[in-house]
Task: inverse folding
């Protein structure tokens, strides 16, 4: 999928209309943002880590200060 199609799809999903001039400005900006976001996940050393915090409904809170 090319960047123009992606930008149009993202704007459509958000319910935002853009003129052709605005799209012409958004597409190069999107390409740079997409590359930066992809770089966040391109860290080989973090391949097997699980950095996400998880909510556990059955977890108990313990007073660690005692």
Result:
């Amino acid at each position: 999928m090319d960047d123009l199609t992606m930008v149009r799809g993202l704007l459509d999903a958000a319910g935002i209309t853009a003129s052709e001039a605005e799209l012409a400005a958004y597409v190069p900006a999107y390409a740079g943002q997409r590359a930066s976001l992809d770089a966040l996940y391109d860290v080989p050393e973090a391949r097997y880590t699980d950095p996400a915090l998880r909510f556990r409904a059955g977890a108990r809170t313990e007073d660690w200060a005692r």
